[in-house]
Design a protein that fits this description.
The protein has about 150 residues and is α+β, with helices and mostly antiparallel strands. The protein has a single domain, classed as Aminopeptidase (3-Layer(aba) Sandwich), CATH 3.40.630. Helices cover about 30% and strands about 35% of the residues. β3 and β4 form a beta hairpin.
Length: about 150
């Protein structure tokens, strides 16, 4: 499959934002919902490094990305999106494994994930466990399941 993971480049911020919105749309959300999420899903050039944004690249094309945010020992998997054309092909697993390894190397002991309902089964399959709920950053009154993943496992 020839997939590599590398740090996001500054000029990729807007492309990653659009990838996030395309990926979210894969789950059948309507245009109004997606527009409500746009601000929260927007990445800016100046924050890519601080958010530890990493991309999955296949044959020169970006097919997914993730962010690992916060400071040790407690981090946050802030964003993880895979291009809809390759969902289900193992790219999410590669990105998640990258986050776990990176978190461990940086001294994190765990990270939380505020999961879209469609992504909960994936994160649970990756070893994350539900620990509560968190308010949506986009939709007032909507809550998301918060999961926790230990990285010392």
């Amino acid at each position: 499959m020839g997939i590599s993971i590398r740090p996001a480049r500054l000029q990729e911020a807007s492309y990653l934002t659009e990838l996030a919105l395309r990926s979210k749309a894969h789950w059948g959300y309507d245009t109004q919902f997606l527009e409500s999420c746009r601000k929260e899903l927007t990445l800016r050039e100046g924050e890519l490094s601080a958010r530890r944004a990493a991309v999955a690249e296949q044959d020169g094309d970006i097919v997914g990305f993730t962010t690992l945010e916060g400071d040790p020992p407690q981090g946050v998997l802030g964003m993880m999106f895979v291009d809809p054309d390759v969902i289900g092909k193992g790219i999410g697993r590669l990105l998640f494994d990258h986050v776990v390894v990176t978190a461990r190397e940086l001294g994190f002991t765990q990270f939380t994930i505020d999961a879209d309902p469609n992504a909960e089964p994936f994160y649970e399959a990756m070893g994350a466990v539900p620990v509560g709920v968190a308010p949506s950053g986009s939709i007032p009154g909507r809550t998301l399941t918060q999961l926790l993943r230990n990285v010392r496992d």
